[in-house]
Amino acid sequence: MVEHEFEALDFPVVLEQFASFAASSKTAQKIREATILEDVYLMRHDLSLAAEAFVYLQKGGMLSLGGLRDITKHVLTAQKKITLLPSELLDISFFLSACQATSQAFDAQQSPLLHEIASTLTPCKSLSQQIDASIDLSGQVRMDATAKLRHLNNALIQARADLANGARRFIRTHESSLVDTVTVSSGSRVCVLVKATDKYKFGGMVHGMSQSQAACYLEPDALVELNNRVADTLMEIENEKKRICQELTSIVSKNGQALLSNDESMEIIDMAIAKGHWMNVHDGCIPTLHTKNHQLRIEHAVHPLLDPKKAIANRYSMSNQTKCLMITGSNMGGKTVTLKTIGLFLLLAHCGYPVSAHEALLPLYSQFYFDIGDEQSIENNLSTFSAHATKLAHIVTHCDANTFVLLDEIGSGTDPQEGASLAQAVLETLMDKGATILTSTHYSQVKTFGSTHPHIQVGSVEFDPETLKPTYRYLEGVSGSSCAFPIARQLGMPQEVLQRANEIKEENESETTRQLEVLEQRQAQLQKQKDRFDTLIANAHDLQRQAKHDQEKWQEMKERLDREYAKELDDMLYEKKEEARQIIKVLRDQTNSQNHEQIEQLGKLDALNQPIEQGKQEQPNKVEITFKEGDYVRIPSLNNHGEIQSIRRGKANVLVNGRRVVVSVDQLLPMEKPKPPKRIRKQHIDRQFKAFPMELNLIGMRVEEGMNALDHYLDQAVYHRVKNVRIIHGMGTGALRNAVWANLRKHPQVKQITSAGPGEGGLGATLVELK
Question: For residue 512, is it within any domain?
Fold first, then answer.
């Protein structure tokens, strides 16, 4: 191919995109000069390097090649024993820093090819350190590079100070002969402005006259020696700097082979990283090249010069039996873009570059021919058709089975009938030679030929006849109409002209052409229905995925709640077990008799047998039992039994072991009255009873919890025939105190309630007198 054929496919512009990501100007220039590789191994190797670089960047690789410089000229200059400038030495230092960073950047497992290349880099640490010690970041020799240079710099500072002092003394002493009291510089030597009449009065050297000839620039004898000291010191400094550069240049020359080898390796890595960056920006992929057949498949392809946010991604494919892909459709519909996209992708792949698609399977070709665009030439006396015919003749003559041919608007530029016939003959010849062809056409005769040929696959770029705008969607297997009349109407063509054109068209077109147009219309309708069904199916799939996601979310929530509930049950069970353990311990510490403390502890233990959360379990339906005076009942909360003496307002007065206890009716269970046991003489056992607590502390309890504790305590107090008790409820918000007083006022066994005195808890306690 010649250069203008590359340009017709926008190949140089796309290469410029790659070059913009290169760190080195040398790498960028090599990218701009990319050509088709003849060695398949080199193609695949370059693509593999780009793939590793892409993965490296995707995983957060932070290799910076900003310091990469083109040092080839510098090294060759040093090898010719020409002293390098400090700025050139600084370029070599930056280059070596990039080499050192690159040598440690890649992992042998994840990036084997890049790691192998990076491992060949020679650090040249000694050279890098010596350059850094002698050259600063501005590209100048450091004033402290050597001891001699430091000494000379101090001497220069002193000489300039002495010169300034000498000038001030001279000005102060001979002020009347001077035009101005400031010094001036002439040829890097300090001078004074002396009146022209006094220019020979102080000796020295006259460096020039002012424009008015009234003053002259004089270097008097008093300043000559001081100026000479400054000049001599500056010369010594420059000589020392030159010596340092010569010494560093000699070291560069000795390391020249390693530096040039590093330069080649860094260029390869820089190019791979540039390709990886391009893939990230253009959502690209590494094409797969194969030699089995001419099968082609490109998924989600977008031309890299189009805006990826607005461009329509398409899928292109050619089976092994297909020898020609024929693109049809309207003008301005995107046929040429389709041709350029496929042709560009093939070029990029054969140059070892990625493509802007999600997946690409491309065959290998040894020859490429492109006939695209208008190539008429006044210089060569070629019309548009002549230029196309010349190129077609060359293609037909030189193509073979390993040739890819791209023909835009084949047969155009001449009589439609002859052009269509020529196009059909050229396509037949190319297919007979085994070439792969990508072409576009408007000719009905050529479209009919393509639709009926077994080795030609027809496709089109969609055009919406309602909006008269292209959609840029590629439709595989669908032939598209040219839509010339609707487009002409949109561009302002008068209706009468279009009507007459349509009449002429109907008169001249053949039955085959009419049938083809009908077929195209039906294909367009079927395509719309397919698009509608595809949209419905996609929406259904989205709903299905959303429902599945919601189901998984609710299932996960249920499992989490079940786990939390099970954990809460375990925690409550553990607490209940600990409470039961403490109760049993208390019972064991007491005597064998069933005193009031045992009754209280057994009641607590019996309460632990109730379900942990009654709300979570279904309780059997209780049979309502009506109790009356004289019934014998069991009291589970006290683990005791007795006879009902009276019942009033849901409260039963039960005689238990000779003591009256007030209990709620719903806490009673019926039982048969036990028969009195026969009296047996038993050894008298002293029973020790613990003292009943005379106060109840409710501080820290909730109102409901405190009222339950208060009822139980008052029952026990009545049972133990205690007359006066103290209830400690604290002050707080007053809610617990109000609830205690309200409960005590309704209790049948309470005789009187009063607030405690200052020494008994004050408002934080209540004194209760029982009947």
Answer: no
